[in-house]
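For this section, I looked closely at a protein sequence along with its fold in token form, which I now present.
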Amino acid sequence: QDHVCSLPKVPFRGAPCSDAAGSQVPYATIMKQVNSSLSGLLWDEVQKAPFFEYKDSVGQLHQVWFDDPHSISLKAAYVKSRGLRGIGMWNGNSLDYSREAVAEQQTQAMWQALTP
């Protein structure tokens, strides 16, 4: 209802919960899944990030958070405006490097978003 999804407590290096409670999904899978999701694309103004919600085959609700060209460009612009020395990303090899036209366009947009 309020788009609040609690992670199970999976302690990791002192943090009460971590990415060990979830899993990483390739960008191509996310882009295909968002269109058939329960919620459609949602935007969190605090995190400046998109997310969506879906139910799996047994009816359990899941939430998927990710970056897209818009969210990355906002973060890159923030880094530049503060005079910081750079920006990092979690995993660039999760982009879709197939030769499909849509995939090439999405991947190019993601890389271009790193330069504000």
